[in-house]
Amino acid sequence: MPKNSSGLISDAEKKAIDLVVQFSKENGLDYEIIDLNKAGLMTQLKFIMKRWKVPVIGIGNKTIVGLPTREELESLLQRQLAA
How far apart are CA 47 and CA 83, in angstroms? Predict the structure, then answer.
């Protein structure tokens, strides 16, 4: 979980965070986890304007909205590498 997180996440969200962290480390990817409860106004507005639901997982310009599976992360990475 992000430092200074509000800690208000479900078990499914915690598992998704752990999956993203593990997947990123295995593939040498950087990742960022943003707690919208503690995010600044501009970040919150960005999510509202893009009509994103949380979580949003992004690699390059490709995204997954919602809780990802390992297969979705692998597919997202492959699509980004192919671009």
Answer: 25
| Angle of CA points 72, 64, 14, to nearest 5° | 80
Question: What is residue 10's predicted lDDT score, i.e. its pLDDT?
Answer: 81
Give the number of domains in the chain: 1
Cβ–Cβ < 8 Å for 7, 44: no
Do the beta carbons of residue 6 and residue 38 sit within 8 Å? Answer: yes
Which residues span the domain enclosing 69?
Answer: 11-82
User: Model's pTM, two decimal places?
Assistant: 0.68
Asked if 16 contacts 70 with a C-beta cutoff of 8 angstroms, the reply is: no
pLDDT digits (tens, 9 = 90+) for 42-83: 988 888 888 877 777 777 777 788 888 999 899 888 888 887
Q: Is residue 62 part of a domain?
A: yes
